[in-house]
C-alpha cells in the first residue's frame, strides 16, 4: 500500500504525525506533500522533536491568497504529483483549502480519498471551513470520524458508505504528550490548583468588533474580582485592545504572552474553568477534565455542548455562564475514543489493501 498525505497547516502536520507513526510500524510507504498554505515547516517546536515529524517529500509553496486562487494552485501542482506517484490512497485532514483541493484532485483522478476528522458541522453554513468540510466529505471514500455525532451528521446528509468512528487523533496526541506538560508558568506566578480561570480569545468575530471585545473584557473584569483570570493574549487581540483603547479593561487580568502547547496544557490542567473561542482548546480542556465556556455562536464540537460539559455563550453573559457551569451536571461520555484513533485508521486502510 502506498499512501500520499497532503497537509498545509501546523495542526495538520501534528495529526499526520500520529498516523505516520502507525504507518512506520507496519512498514507502509507514505509520501508527504506540504501545500505551503500557511505554515513554515522549519519552524522549531516540540512537536517536531517529540513526534519525529518528517520533512515533506514535496512542497508546493502556494502561500496565502484568495480562496479560489489558492485552491486552484494547489490542485494544479498536487495533481502532477499524484499522477507521478500514483498512490493507492490520498489522505487529507481537517477543513482547510488544502484539504478541499487534495480531495477534489483525488476524486477527479478516481483515487480513493481518506478524510481524517470527517463529519464535523458548524454554523454559519457559508463559512469557508464549513464549505471545505462538506464538499470534502462528499467526495471522499473513507470518512474517519472523531465522534459518533460526526457519524450521524454524515448519515443525515445521505452518506451511506465508508463511514468509520475511529476516535480523535488529537486525543492520541494529548495522551502521548501528557507526561511532558509544562507547569513552569503555574509555578512562576504562584498559581495553585483550580484557583484561576484560563482565557483565550482570538477569533475575528470577537476581536474585530469593538463592542464584542469590550463586552468580553468587561465580563473578565467582573470575574477577576473573585478569581484570577490568566489571559495568554493573542497578537490580534492585543492589537485590537490598543486600537479600540481598551487597555484599562485588562489591568485586573493576568495578561501573559502566548505560550506553546505544553505550557498551555499545563495551564489547562491546573485551571478551574477555561473560557475560549478556540476550536482546539475547548476540546483539549475536555481531555484534561476541565469545563469550558465557549464564546462562539456555534462549535464543531457540539457533542461537548449536548453532554452539558461545555457551554456556548454570548460575550455579554460570560460571568453568568461561569456561575451556571458549576451548577450543571454533565452527562460524561468518552466521546472521542480511547486514544487509538491513529491505530484504528491505519488498521481500516490495511484491511482494504
From TrEMBL:
Q: Which Pfam families match?
A: Epimerase_2 (PF02350)
Mind telling me which InterPro entries this protein's record contains?
A: UDP_GlcNAc_Epimerase_2_dom, WecB-like
> Which terms does the record give in the GO molecular function aspect?
isomerase activity
Q: Report what the protein is called.
A: UDP-N-acetylglucosamine 2-epimerase (Non-hydrolysing)
Name the CDD domains on file.
GTB_UDP-GlcNAc_2-Epimerase (cd03786)
Task: Tell me the protein family, please.
Answer: Belongs to the UDP-N-acetylglucosamine 2-epimerase family.
**Where would I find the UDP-N-acetylglucosamine 2-epimerase domain in this sequence?**
24-349
Lipid biosynthesis found in the keyword field: no
Which Gene3D superfamilies does the record cross-reference, listed alphabetically?
Answer: Glycogen Phosphorylase B
Annotated keywords:
Isomerase
Amino acid at each position: 500500500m502506498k499512501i500520499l498525505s497532503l497537509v498545509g497547516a501546523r495542526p495538520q502536520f501534528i495529526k499526520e504525525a500520529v498516523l505516520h507513526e502507525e504507518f512506520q510500524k507496519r512498514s507502509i510507504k507514505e509520501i508527504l506533500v506540504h501545500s505551503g498554505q500557511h505554515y513554515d515547516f522549519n519552524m522549531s517546536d516540540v512537536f517536531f522533536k517529540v513526534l519525529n515529524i518528517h520533512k515533506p517529500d514535496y512542497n508546493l509553496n502556494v502561500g496565502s491568497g484568495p480562496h479560489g486562487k489558492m485552491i486552484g494552485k494547489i490542485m494544479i501542482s498536487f495533481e502532477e504529483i499524484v499522477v507521478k506517484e500514483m498512490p493507492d490512497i490520498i489522505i487529507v485532514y481537517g477543513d482547510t483549502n488544502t484539504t478541499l483541493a487534495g480531495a477534489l484532485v483525488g476524486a477527479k483522478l478516481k483515487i480513493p480519498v481518506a478524510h481524517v476528522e470527517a463529519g464535523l458541522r458548524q454554523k454559519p453554513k457559508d463559512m469557508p471551513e464549513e464549505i471545505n468540510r462538506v464538499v470534502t466529505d462528499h467526495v471522499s471514500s473513507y470518512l474517519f470520524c472523531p465522534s459518533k455525532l460526526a457519524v450521524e451528521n454524515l448519515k443525515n446528509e445521505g452518506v451511506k458508505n465508508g463511514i468509520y468512528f475511529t476516535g480523535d487523533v488529537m486525543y492520541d496526541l494529548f495522551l502521548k504528550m501528557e507526561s511532558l506538560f509544562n507547569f513552569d508558568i503555574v509555578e512562576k506566578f504562584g498559581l495553585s490548583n483550580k484557583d484561576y480561570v484560563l482565557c483565550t480569545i482570538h477569533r475575528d468575530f470577537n476581536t474585530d468588533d469593538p463592542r464584542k471585545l469590550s463586552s468580553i473584557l468587561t465580563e473578565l473584569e467582573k470575574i477577576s474580582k473573585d478569581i484570577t483570570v490568566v489571559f495568554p493574549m493573542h497578537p490580534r487581540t492585543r492589537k485590537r485592545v490598543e486600537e479600540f483603547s481598551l487597555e484599562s479593561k485588562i489591568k485586573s487580568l493576568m495578561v501573559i504572552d502566548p505560550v506553546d502547547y505544553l505550557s498551555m496544557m499545563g495551564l489547562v490542567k491546573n485551571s478551574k474553568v477555561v473560557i475560549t473561542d478556540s476550536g482546539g482548546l475547548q476540546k483539549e480542556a475536555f481531555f484534561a477534565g476541565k469545563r469550558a465556556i465557549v464564546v462562539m455562536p456555534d462549535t464543531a464540537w457540539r457533542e461537548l455542548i449536548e453532554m452539558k460539559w461545555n457551554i456556548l455563550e454570548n460575550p455579554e453573559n460570560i460571568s453568568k455562564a461561569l456561575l451556571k457551569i458549576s451548577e450543571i451536571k454533565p452527562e460524561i461520555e468518552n466521546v472521542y475514543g480511547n486514544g487509538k484513533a491513529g491505530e484504528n485508521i491505519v488498521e481500516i486502510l490495511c484491511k482494504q489493501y
